TrEMBL record:
Family: Belongs to the beta-class carbonic anhydrase family.
Any one GO molecular-function label of the UniProt entry: carbonate dehydratase activity
Source organism: Polynucleobacter sp. UK-FUSCHL-C3
UniProt KW Membrane keyword: no
GO biological process: carbon utilization
Cofactor detail note: Binds 1 zinc ion per subunit.
One Pfam entry name: Pro_CA
UniProt protein name: Carbonic anhydrase 2
Record's keyword annotation contains Metal-binding: yes
EC number: 4.2.1.1
Top-rank taxon: Bacteria
Cofactor section: Zn(2+)
Chain positions recorded as Zn(2+) binding sites: C48, D50, H104, C107
Length: 218
């Protein structure tokens, strides 16, 4: 693509930014002055990088009301210092009360893992999703419809990430100090915009394993 066309594409974003500012301030003149002091979220949202799953809009929260971390397939890997740093900052600095893992049906990262699609360097990240698939292979292999199998893997992946978060020393230390933190798992449907609770909420170490085993036994 010629350099001039690329510049025009970028200019379009700047123009849209100015239009957005005007619309926001016309509706609410104090929007930005109030936003400066509004970073006081109760929620940490851990979601997929998919651009069709915007955190604030889905749950009707304003900027500053939710702290967001996103990556391919909403993973929390124990060696990922990016995610761990976000979790620790959210708990220790922002004092969030809820950590919400939000997956979505039709996730292309999870589909790539399920179908062994090679992508490139992202294969190293997707390997963790394959581990979830292998762990639950018995259940998944009994689902013959491919779309339903993918949907179930998306749900199981959320469940495993809830457990991963609860097992971090960050959350374990917070719980041991009596800090009230709840971890939730949800799944979002691109088809109708509905966010569904997967009934994975845990609030302490004892509940973590009990809830996990109960959900798998359903």
């Amino acid at each position: 693509m010629p350099a001039n066309n690329k510049k025009l594409d970028l200019e379009r974003l700047f123009e849209q930014n100015r239009s957005w500012i005007k619309k926001v301030t016309d509706d609410d003149p104090d929007y930005f002055s109030r936003l400066v002091d509004q970073q006081n979220p109760e929620y940490l949202w851990i979601g997929c990088s998919d651009s069709r799953v915007p955190a604030n809009q889905i749950v009707g929260l304003k900027p500053g009301e939710v702290f967001v971390h996103r990556n391919i397939a909403n993973m929390v890997v124990h060696t990922d210092f990016n995610a761990l740093s976000v979790i620790q900052f959210a708990i220790d600095r922002l004092k969030v009360k809820h950590i919400i893992v939000v997956g979505h049906y039709g996730c292309s990262g999870i589909e790539a893992a399920m179908n062994n699609v090679r992508i490139g360097i992202a294969d190293n990240w997707i390997r963790h999703i394959k581990d979830v698939h292998d762990k639950h292979n018995r259940e998944l292999s009994n689902i013959h419809d491919q779309h339903k199998r993918l949907d179930r893997l998306c749900e199981l992946n959320v469940l495993e990430q809830v457990v991963n978060i609860g097992q971090t020393n960050i959350v374990q230390d917070a719980w041991s100090k009596g800090q009230g933190i709840s971890i939730h798992g949800c799944i979002y449907s691109l088809c109708d915009g509905v966010l569904m609770d997967l009934d994975t909420t845990v609030t302490d170490s004892n509940e973590l394993n009990q809830r996990y085993l109960r959900l798998l036994s359903k």
